[in-house]
Amino acid sequence: MNLNIKLLIFFCSLFSFLVIYGYRVGAESQSDYILDARFGHGGKGDGEFSVPHSIVFDSFGNMYVTDNSNNRVQKFTSNGTFITKWGSHGKGDGQFLGPEGIDVDSGGNIYVADTGNSRIQKFTSNGTFITKWGSHGKGDGQFSSHAHGVLIDSFDNVYITDRFNNRVQKFTSNGTFITKWGSHGKGDGQFNEPHSSAIDKFGNIYVSDTKNNRVQKFTSNGTFITKWGSNGTKDGQFGVLLGIDVDSYGNAYTIDQAKSLIQKFANNGTFITKWTNPEFGDWALEDIELDSSDNVYVTDRVNNEIFKFVQSIYPNPSN
Fold first, then answer.
1. Average of per-residue pLDDT across 221-240
2. If DSSP codes are grouped into helix, strand and coil, which group holds residue 251?
3. How far apart are the C-alpha atoms of 287 and 100, rounded to whole Å?
């Protein structure tokens, strides 16, 4: 084989490598998360939704979804197979008026923000009613007309983002008031309609401060640590910041409803990556939850679906 042919083969191979490597690096710089599954559609039947709102996973990998306009909670296996459901429209024990936030404690009990009734309800994992607390108002243990996010720490303390009272309230697992923090404003530790919260392995609390277009980070007793974000369309900025969750490494994931966008940050607010999906409905994404393997689930309230994303070193172009 003469020298010219060898050089031609070498440069063709080099070109192919650079094209493939360039694609992979470019893809990773945008996101290394790909769509793995989706399930649900509009309706009132088992496994159907009318405005799916929030998600939580128990220690067995079962998934619970607040089915907002159907006024119920549905329980599924991790792959989306329907298990059971509970709830109906009303004010009685086990009934709901637009349930939103949801979380699970160390014993597998389920806590639901019964938003329209300005209260929290607690159930067993199969939906048996245990207790409730809260009423409409501004006092300790009371909630605005939008008690929203529910978060439970490793001690089974319960944190509620009280959206229109612009605060976070902390309770024991039976509803006894512990403390609160926040007021209306733009300063550190103040809020303008906080939506959801998440907790890392150190017990730090991350709150999506929706109308201030930022994330705020606190200790478990409400001491301010840091913040990030502003209004805009650039990386690390937000249009309508809603759901938030934290992975096992302490990275924070956020939902921007205005841009149908998921963003990922380090625990100090440094932007890491972002992604969206052409199947998302406009102004549809509501909440985000990670399972024990750090797979990402988001609720689409317009398409009445749940989308699951998994991390891949090199995203498949067909996705």
1. 97
2. coil
3. 10
